[in-house]
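Entry, Tuesday afternoon. Goal for today is a structural model of the target with N-(iminomethyl)-L-glutamic acid bound, before we commit to ordering more compound. Inputs were pasted exactly as handed over by J.K., no edits. I checked the ligand SMILES twice against the vendor sheet because last time a stereocentre got dropped in transcription.
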Amino acid sequence: MSQGSTGGAARTQAGRATLLTGIAELTTVDDELGVVPDAAVVIQDGVVAWVGQESQAPACDVVQDLGGRAALPGWVDAHSHLVFDGDRSAEFEARMAGQTYAAGGIKVTTGATRAASDERLRALVAARVADAVAGGTTYLETKTGYGLTVHDEARSAVIAAELVDEVTFLGAHLVPDGMDPEEYTDLVCTTMLSAVAPHARWADVFCDKGAFTPEQTRRVLDAARAAGLGLRLHGNQIEPGAGVSIAVEYQAASVDHLNFLSEQDIEALAGSGRDAQGAKREGYETVAGVLPACDLSTRAPLAPARRLLDAGATLAIASNCNPGTSYTSSMNFCVGTAVLQQGLSLAEAIRAATVGGARALRADRESLAAGTRPKATGHEAPIGRIAVGHRADLHVLDAPAAIHLAYRPGMPLTHAVWRAGVRVASTH
Ligand SMILES: N=CN[C@@H](CCC(=O)O)C(=O)O
Ligand SMILES: [Zn+2]
């Protein structure tokens, strides 16, 4: 395990360097660096400039002692729906009394969201983003999908683009009441897509029972791809179906939920993005997105994360924060659940919630190198690891080791958060 690198650069470049010391255990999620005991990190100009053992750290202008705590990359939450108003706790309570989840609940949120002023919606989203950051999330995707008119989808995208890192157009979330499904799909593919695309990087479709059919899903994906958006899907949440196979066929960056998978679905995900010899082309695969909090909140069978990993799929863990199926942005909870309930090791769960999420957004170093990121600017530092040249996104725990995430579930373990080199959340 090689631990130090480019230490000399830390004092000589433009911005002031900050040295973080007192890291009892540093989980880098970098294959070469691994887990570093008694570690230090140098941050400069928003990126990691040095990482290694504290005894070998370079001198820096500013030093901050983390007091023997564990640190890891900030969470990369690649699936959320934060642009909404309204409450669906009664629906949740009915579900806990035995009702099953159905896509139709989305329309309750759509009504409340349309009725909210821009200012109110912006304030609601800002508060939700602040909650996520306070829980260790440093990179966040969110979707439209509770507007479902051209005007309300566009304003959802504009508000999201002001407040989160990645915006996904989800006009194809539910066919609104009173509309013909084919006519609505046409609207999503034409006027609505044109209005939203300037504010979004991705398009998504809820391909499942009660939402969009495989044929409608393909139409939306074709139109979104032609508009230059990257593709992602909701699939196999409510029943077995074509979501996964369509996602792989379209080389979507991810397909999320995955509660009802066939062996062929698992093989398709594991085989996605491979060359003719079967070698994985990092950054080209369809990432399998699992949403542990959603599975619990809908009492769905937990997505088979263990089987997906064993088969060779690339895994992401995300919060799916939304008012219907998963009203939490706590990635600490999702990671703890994946360990306690889904058979992942801590290292596997952390990887899925950091670099796995980054891969699902094509924002990790392999995806950037492969050039598979839609609307890439060419100036973005990779995310998801603590390694030289990566964006300085760090999550410091009030614990000496990251296993406390599963060992002490539900405890307030996030101590401090750095996002792009700036300390954005702290309990002290
Ligand atoms: N399944 C589709 N969309 C959301 C839930 C939408 C809702 O019920 O409000 C999800 O990812 O779970
Ligand atoms: Zn979702």
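The chain has two domains: 7-72+384-426, 75-370.
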